[in-house]
Design a protein that fits this description.
With 436 residues, this protein is an alpha/beta fold. It has 10 helices and 20 strands.
């Protein structure tokens, strides 16, 4: 059952009022002498107890039986921190820009060691923050999908795991793990044989008594349909929407199988990908689920006592899509809204990055986690009526215009070219979905 709780301001006021009453009562009884630590009085580990949950003074979390999940505000990315008793788990870590925020958040909560780090897949907006955390905080076990990526951030991930001698495993669907008084089970992918790395996303279903959370990274509709075909139990109280609310994930049949009471969408406000999509938001609305969004609300906290789950802040129930928010923002600023569509523009740019030459070899992308354009050369002269191919310079695949896989290519990996044979000579392979 999902419940809503008052904002942190009201909570602090209530705590302050209780402390004031206790102080007045204590004054009436007189002041006790002696060392408070010997009496196990006061806050902090030195005094025999930990600081209360949500404390603004120490940042440490109370060691309780409750299961707490923080959906962190990492912009256009995903990261979730899970806590129960003295156990901690991090599921994804956001992009490079959010890395210091994630590390700081963990330290503020008093995290000195993570029992698990779960990497859903190797896109930079999920993995970069993980690399930062592994540099700063001890970890017992890393769970990651069983495929490889030809990116700088994946290489950095492998390097830090080797340097720290971390135990990295590639669990299969159905494997179960204990976490304090809770447990979680691997629910995706059906196999690690998908061509699309997003479809290989490692998904978990976290359970504490009668409450459950489902987090599946950027799991695609292809992967979702396979899970449904296999009869995988994905029903959960709280669902972290797949792929930031993308229309190429979160198919209606999958959402009906999950049947969540609350949906959390992690994405960046005004992102260029159009997340979350209007069709997904409509499906959530039709389910009658509470809606929470990091792009509009920031950090989302969910606390379960095993029976009920309470959220802070309240559900926003704002069903404006990503493009609608961009339009609203531009209108508020008095700007021309223009078009959000980037892939299908009439002027076809070269697929090597700006600042590189067609015959000189592209330099590696400045942003860690993006692939270098390995000196690719191709003719970009497009004859009348001819549509250019859409390239993923990271995976070395090319697509037809309108291919659903092409619309999910990250902007830093996006390119165009016209000559099919030359692309194949350069090592590119055609997409198996659209068969260009």
């Amino acid at each position: 059952m999902i419940k809503r709780i008052a904002g942190s301001g009201s909570q602090r006021f209530l705590i302050g009022l209780i402390l004031l009453v206790l102080a007045v009562c204590g004054g009436c009884q007189g002041v006790q002498q002696g060392n408070p630590a010997d009496e196990n009085i006061g806050l902090g580990e030195d005094a025999g107890t930990k600081a209360p949950a949500f404390s603004d003074d120490t940042g440490e979390e109370e060691s309780t039986d409750d299961l707490t999940v923080w959906f962190l505000d990492v912009g256009q990315g995903s990261a979730a921190l899970v806590h129960q008793k003295d156990s901690w788990m991090l599921v994804d870590g956001g992009d490079q820009e959010a890395s210091s925020y994630v590390v700081g958040f963990l330290k503020e909560k008093g995290v000195t060691k993570l029992d698990y780090v779960v990497v859903s897949h190797y896109d930079s907006d999920h993995l970069s923050g993980i690399v930062g955390v592994l540099h700063a905080i001890e970890c017992s076990q890393v769970l990651a999908p069983d495929y490889e990526a030809d990116t700088k951030i994946y290489a950095s991930f492998q390097k830090i795991c080797e340097e720290k001698e971390l135990a990295v495993s590639h669990p299969k669907m159905g494997e179960a793990f204990t976490f304090a008084d809770s447990s979680f089970r691997i629910v995706s992918p059906a196999s690690y044989e998908y061509e699309d790395g997003n479809s290989n996303s490692l998904g978990i279903r976290l359970e504490y008594e009668d409450s459950s959370f489902l987090i599946c990274g950027d799991c695609t509709e292809e992967s979702e349909q396979d899970l449904l075909y296999l009869g995988t139990d994905v029903k959960s109280d709280v669902f972290a929407a797949n792929h930031h609310g993308s229309r190429y994930s979160n198919c209606p049949e999958f959402l009906e199988a999950v049947a969540p009471e609350a949906v959390v969408i992690s994405c960046g406000k005004g992102n260029s990908y159009g997340h979350p999509d209007a069709s997904v938001l409509l499906s959530v609305q039709n389910l009658g689920a509470d809606l929470y969004r990091t792009d509009l609300q920031g950090e989302i906290t969910a606390v379960s006592d095993g029976k009920e789950i309470v959220f802070d802040p309240d559900a926003c129930m704002d069903y404006r899509s990503g493009p609608e928010l961009r339009e609203d923002g531009k209108e508020a600023d008095g700007q021309d809204s223009g078009s959000d569509v980037k892939l299908f523009q009439e002027d076809v740019p070269p697929y090597y990055k700006e600042g590189t030459s067609a015959d000189g070899g592209a330099e590696a992308a400045d942003k860690e986690g993006t692939a270098a354009d390995e000196g690719a050369e191709a003719s970009n002269e497009v004859s009348a009526g001819q549509e250019p191919y859409i390239l993923n310079t990271n995976t070395k695949k090319f697509h037809k215009q309108g291919c659903s896989s092409a619309e999910e290519i990250k902007e830093e990996n996006l390119g165009y070219a016209a000559d099919r044979e030359e692309l194949i000579d350069l090592g590119y392979t055609p997409c198996k979905r659209c068969e260009p």
